[in-house]
Automatic annotation (TrEMBL):
One of its GO terms (molecular function) is oxidoreductase activity. Keywords: Oxidoreductase. This is 3-oxoacyl-ACP reductase. Signal peptide: none annotated. CDD domains: SDR_c. Belongs to the short-chain dehydrogenases/reductases (SDR) family.
């Protein structure tokens, strides 16, 4: 699923937990960390896709990935879930907060229910996942949290008010968490993908014209794929980024 561009030997056997890992960017991240020899667990609400990915990757590397079906909007369940996952993994060194839904809304018609639902998956779980993971990361002498934001809030996109608000909030949250957790040796950074062409995006939002328009704005004249997010995430999770924290790194092919 993902091309292995670099080997981070320190990631081998490390416990890694990824949210929203059953499809799209998340699935590429799961495959990327599995290929590094990490002990990977991933969470997703889509049980069928999660089971299929875990089966697909089983036997391909040092450790088979572990899938857990869960609804991240149920924040009260996150701490016991993370505790159970970490017990099975045998420790935790990396948390990747990737889960998101980029549903479109018009300012004129968005309802309070739609707004709350967007923030409930795109922003609210992140601090509670960090809260649940932090004691385990600290017990392991530190580690890394990688939060997935987006360049959407920087592009003045008029049909993503809730999503853009959440993704901007993730950058602020990342900096706050970095300040709080840094003394415990826990690094916290954000990745801001550009327009990544996934199956969901193609099915719901993207057309040949919209893809061409974005490529026209990029320095790199090609579509960004889910695999393009794997290398930056592996780097931030690894000891190669040992002095890098509180940063928001844009991976957009050169739009911004």
């Amino acid at each position: 699923m993902t091309m292995e561009a670099a080997r981070y030997r320190d990631l081998a056997d490390r416990g890694v937990l990824i949210t929203g890992g059953a499809s799209g960017i998340g699935a590429a991240l799961v495959a990327g960390f599995v290929a590094q020899g990490a002990r990977v667990a991933f969470i997703d609400i889509d049980e069928a896709a999660g089971v299929a990915l875990a089966s697909q990757l089983s036997g391909t590397a040092r450790h088979d990935p572990l899938f857990f079906a869960a609804d991240l909007t149920d924040t009260a369940s996150l701490k016991p879930l993370v505790d159970r996952i970490v017990a099975i993994l045998g420790g935790l060194k990396v948390l990747v907060n990737n889960a998101a839904r980029d549903d479109r809304h018009a300012l004129e018609t968005i309802s309070e229910t739609e707004w709350d639902a967007s923030l409930a998956i795109n922003l609210k779980p992140l601090p509670f996942m960090a809260q649940a993971a932090a004691p385990h990361l600290k017990a392991g002498s530190g580690g890394a949290i990688v939060n997935f934001s987006s360049i959407a809030f920087l592009l003045n996109m008029d049909d993503l008010p809730a999503y853009s608000a959440a993704k901007a909030g993730i950058v602020g949250l990342t900096k706050s968490l970095a300040g709080r957790l840094g003394p415990d040796g826990i690094r916290v950074n954000a990745l801001l993908p550009g327009m990544v062409v996934t199956e969901r995006q193609k099915a719901l939002w993207l057309t040949e014209d919209s893809i061409a328009a974005m490529i026209g704005k990029q320095c790199l004249k090609r579509s960004l794929m889910a695999d393009d997010m794997v290398g930056p995430c592996l780097f931030l999770a690894s000891d190669s980024a040992a002095a890098l924290t509180a940063q928001a790194i844009i991976v957009d092919g050169g739009v911004l």
